[in-house]
């Protein structure tokens, strides 16, 4: 085997090994803090130009998700999207990266120009559920929204995670 072929084979082996070494899910350090006027992609995703971030610790109802409130089917996912749109109207919005999710998207705590934690506010309004044990204020806000029957808590809804997996309320099941 020639010297160059041996060097090339060694480089391929090292690269392959590095690709399979598990890495902790940390925020992409190329982002750093983001600030400016974002666009709401859905109830918990903001887009700053070509950079998207998901809200850390808050999982909002999906944009096309429905709930049943007062016996009526409602577009509560659209309500969640409208709520985040209203919250980001107070610009600039500043996001501090905290982690990376399974979709390799940065997760951040974002605050509007008034200093309002957007994820916490969405949970308080009942348009998002709390995720993560390391955010006690978020869990407390969810308990408060649930007790006061705010937002989606005023009726029945599927947890956003389960909704993304295809679960639906009986009223919204696709009939075959």
Structure description:
This protein is an alpha+beta fold and 176 residues long. The protein contains five helices and ten strands. The protein has helices spanning 3-20, 76-87, 118-125, 136-148, 160-164; strands spanning 34-36, 39-42, 45-48, 51-55, 58-60, 67-69, 72-74, 93-100, 106-111, 128-130. The strands form three sheets. It has a six-stranded mixed β-sheet. Strands 5-10 form a two-stranded antiparallel ribbon. A two-stranded antiparallel sheet has the order 6-7. It is globular and about 60 Å long. It starts with a helix and ends in a 12-residue tail after the last helix.
What is the CATH topology classification name?
OB fold (Dihydrolipoamide Acetyltransferase, E2P)
What's the number of extended β-strand segments?
A: 10
CATH architecture: Beta Barrel
Helix content: 25-40%
β content, as a range? 15-25%
Low-confidence stretches: 13-25
Tell me the major beta sheet.
Answer: 6 strands, mixed
SS content category: alpha+beta
Number of domains: 1
Overall mean pLDDT stands at 85
- Terminal Cα separation, in Å? 63 Å
The number of helical segments is 5
Morphology: globular
CATH class: Mainly Beta
Q: What strand order characterises the main sheet?
A: 1-8-9-4-3-2
Q: What pattern of helices and strands is seen along the backbone?
A: HEEEEEEEHEEHEHH
Précis, in short:
With 176 residues, the protein is of the alpha+beta class.
Any key phrases for this structure?
5 helices, six-stranded mixed beta sheet, OB fold (Dihydrolipoamide Acetyltransferase, E2P), 32% helix, alpha+beta, 176 residues, two-stranded antiparallel sheet
């Amino acid at each position: 085997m020639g010297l160059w072929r041996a060097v090339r084979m060694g480089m391929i082996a090292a690269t392959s090994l590095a690709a399979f070494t598990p890495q902790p899910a940390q925020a992409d350090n190329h982002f750093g803090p983001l600030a400016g006027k974002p666009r709401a992609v859905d109830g918990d995703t903001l887009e700053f130009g070509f950079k998207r971030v998901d809200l850390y610790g808050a999982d909002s109802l999906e944009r096309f998700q429905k709930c049943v409130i007062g016996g009526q089917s409602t577009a509560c996912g659209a309500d969640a999207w409208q709520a985040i749109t209203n919250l980001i109207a107070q610009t600039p919005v500043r996001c501090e990266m905290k982690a990376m999710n399974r979709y390799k998207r940065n997760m951040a705590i974002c605050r509007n120009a008034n200093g309002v934690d957007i994820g916490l506010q969405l949970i308080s309004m009942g348009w998002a559920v709390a995720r993560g044990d390391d955010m006690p204020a978020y869990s407390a806000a969810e308990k408060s929204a649930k007790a006061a029957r705010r937002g989606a808590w005023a009726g029945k809804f599927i947890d956003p995670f389960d909704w993304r997996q295809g679960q639906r309320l009986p009223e919204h099941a696709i009939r075959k």
